[in-house]
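User: My collaborator sent over this chain with a note saying "see what the structure looks like." That's all I know about it. Can you take a look?
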Amino acid sequence: MPDTSFLEWPFFEREHRDLTGRFRPWVETELGPFATAENREGEAARAIFERIGAAGWLAGIIPAAESEGGGLDLRRACLIREVLAYDSGLADVAFSEPWLASLPIALYGNAEQRRHILPEIEAGRSVPAFALSEPAAGSDVSAIATEARETDDGYVIEGRKTWTSNAGVADLYVLFARLEGAGISGFLVPGDAAGIVLEERLKVLPPHTVGTLSFRNCRVPKDCLLGRAGDGIRMALTALDLFRPTVGAATLGFARRAFDEALRRSLGRTTFGKPIAEHQLIQHKLADMAVSIDAAALLVYRAAWLNDRGGGRSTRAAAIAKLFSTEAAQEVVDQSLQIHGGTGVVAGVAVERLYREVRAFRIFDGTSEIQRLIIAKEALRAFSGRSPEG
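Assistant: Without extra context I'll predict from the sequence alone. Here is the result:
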């Protein structure tokens, strides 16, 4: 059982403690069979998302249809991801990727779009996907080349998207394309729209359903424009600002699981006549792991709390949380595997799975290098704004 004493920190309200107390047993009971399942063609991930939605856990995480983006509890989303990742990386990504795709709809969709789409996602009946990255446009969103051309009755979309989670599985793509005369804009593209071709599924270390899609003369009606034309970059970056603390929370779940596995191993493994937990070298590793986990948790839940408190985007705090937590989790998992010795590299052992799953999080949703650039730019901007020299 992972440590939950952090829930007594002032970042949390009673409802957050209650949520964790109820959600963890549910995950262990209802999602246990999926913990080591193979995600063939995204079927397992879809089944997990459907169960989470049907059980009502998405309420308060996907903003209400009538709220125009209000009512989002980011701390709740972080707690959900941490609990899921502790048990199953597959369960975490099954929840998180559709949740990311729901954010632009909740924040920028018109009343009819929100009313029609968000309740279906919240109930787990609709799986959306976030289609942003392209072969030549990953970290640099402004390099998007997919084009949208306005016609008398709608839009025609031409281009390619890659690293799209739930590619070929999604019921709806939240797609960003360059609209003639307006710039990068958001579109809601039905998953069964004519002209969408799944080019390939990408085989990656974690159990993600990721692929490359092409859009060939893909026609969508006028009401598929999301928000205002030309607001696409702002939509995408705002969604990622909200998403990044939850990425940190997922890796925090990985780290807590790795730490618990290390504690169990160090108490159960005997060398030179005593448990390895009594060797100072092991104790030093355990101490460093504990410090990293607490520091990551403070940064993750500070970022979430800042958002929930209001006052606009928390770009800097989100980037710090994502950077530190993903890097720290990688080190915690690595040290846990080291403590396990040879058993740590046996396929199917918990720390071996964690080692494969945690690595991608330093790349996905903004690499560590990009987070450092964001943090530096925000620090320079803030300093320049208050400097006497300007």
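A starting point for your reply to your collaborator: The mean pLDDT is 93.
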